[in-house]
Predict the structure.
Amino acid sequence: MIEAILLTIVTASTPLLLAAIGELVVERSGVLNLGVEGMMVMGAVGGFLGMMWTGNPFIGAIVGILFGMALSALFGFLVLSLATNQYATGLALTILGLGLSGLLGEAYVGRSAIRMPALDIPVLTDLPIIGRLVFGQDLIFYVSIALVIGVAWFLFSTKQGLTLRAIGDNHASAHALGIKVIRYRYLAVLFGGGCAGLAGAYLSLVYTPQWAENMTAGRGWIALALVVFASWRPARVLAGAYLFGAVSIGQLHAQALGIAIPSQLLTALPYLATIVVLVIISQNRRLTMINTPASLGKSFVPDR
Amino acid sequence: MRIELIKRGTPSATLRYLSPIIGLTLAVITGAIMFAIMGKDPAVALYVYFVEPLTEAWSVHELLIKAAPLILMGAGLSVCYLSNNWNIGAEGQFIVGALAGSIFPVLFTGFDSFIVLPSMVIFAMVGGALYAGIPALLKAKFNTNEILTSLMLVYVAERLLDWLVRGPWRNPGGMNFPESVRFPEFARIPQLMPADGRANWGFIASVIVAIAIWVMLSRTLKGFEVKVIGTSPRAGRFAGFSATNMIFFSFMLAGACAGLAGIIEVAGASGQLRPIISPGYGFTAIIVAFLGRLNPLGAIVAGLVLALTYLGGEAAQISLQISDKATRVFQGALLLYVLACDTLILYRVRFTRTPRATVEAAE
């Protein structure tokens, strides 16, 4: 029973973690992409279509990544090359992604996907409680954990990571030092798009192996909130994603137990929890001041 | 080839008016390509989308019904965005306004008086304003990101509406359908010209409100304050303007507009509450605000344009079997084009063909 609950928490948390870790890198570079929801839902439809075309969920996941990256490339072009307003462009990206995914997936609504197989190592996976949890997950779960470690290492232990953070804190100075601000940001935005796409593909290939319109149901926005909650720290994104996964699963179990609260109000819980957590975090002004990338959301036009 | 932006000495006045038109044209071209890919004749599809709805009186009435909420929320959101307050939760404020305004006709069905309708309108505006006041309060007091909180409250409002119409507010004589009682005649917004179509006074109200907000923005000190705080919070502080008060002012004004839009929809065209009362008007209103240049008068025109996309989308779905999702794609593409064209106001765009190495050598 406990193992089953823990397993569902992991599946609920992984898409949040993937989308949030990608957005963390984007925001560390000083760009705010509010289109996570749109890129994620495109990843979901891309993953499903890729699986349908090839019969292979792994290729599906790659198609999902590419769909997310394609949408983020559009965002990058507008925000980085044309210096458009980042807030409005991100919102437009979400509207576009929700519409486009609905259109692409319309013929596939209700058909079920081939679920991505989970790992099965003879002895280890059969260990009690932790066996399935640690050694018996799907590939994307391991990718998500690896990404957190990789991003933490990249941002805080490499020269390029330091450069990326410098760009996020002061793009004008970085530019004056001869750093290719726009190029770094393009790469960060594409990385974020790929992560959001993979997060979406996880939804349509593992979490609920099918395609449904708007199936991300605000998870992209929760991922954005997680980045703030984590005060732009990879390890805290990991903790936050699992906390939110636990809240949303707890809400499901409360429904199953027949607690006398209307189901609609229970499903509103993850959103209310997001607000509460954001309030608690942002109340600590010092914490946010220290960690918020100072150039976040500001347009940059290199002068020459 | 690379794109280079060169800042103009002064923003181009011509392009300020031209940019939404260029954006719209590009979006229409994109729409035509999209229809062609879907295997439909683009000329026929564009006609069904953008021209046919305007050829019949009843259809123009439907256009006004859809335009009213878009104009109201677009005008309200313009004030938010001008003052740099990112309220993206108009959809939730619309729903809560509709719920607050429906208290009278749903709970006190027999209370027939001339004050019912005005009370519904006031309740709706107060409800919307208070709901918008939540992200405003959280931003002002705790510095919480208003984009995320206002959006999260949309999901909460949607579930609140769903619960009410399936639970406590369900019509007891409604065969278990998830809907409220039908509002009695005295709780309905009167129609403009019942002989021709369903359009009601809500449209007139939306235009009046938009004009009032325009007067406030362009002719009063408050409007000046909105723009100063939006463009330069520092200058605003020196002028003695309070950015905190502006958070509440802009959010609650937009919330009141959204609440009014909600009651106009519910007590106007539909006449009862259902689990879904808006086809995303609150999000489309964001596009309206930007297409209208963050100017409430522009929002009137932009609201009519986007109402046309909804109406054309419905017509195309019936006569050409084009998915209604195509409308969302078109709307999203429209906003992206408008934003891209806005760049032209401030910058000249130059395409450099020279390979990078030579440019650097020349420098």
Summary: Chain A touches chain B through 48 residues (CB under 8 Å).
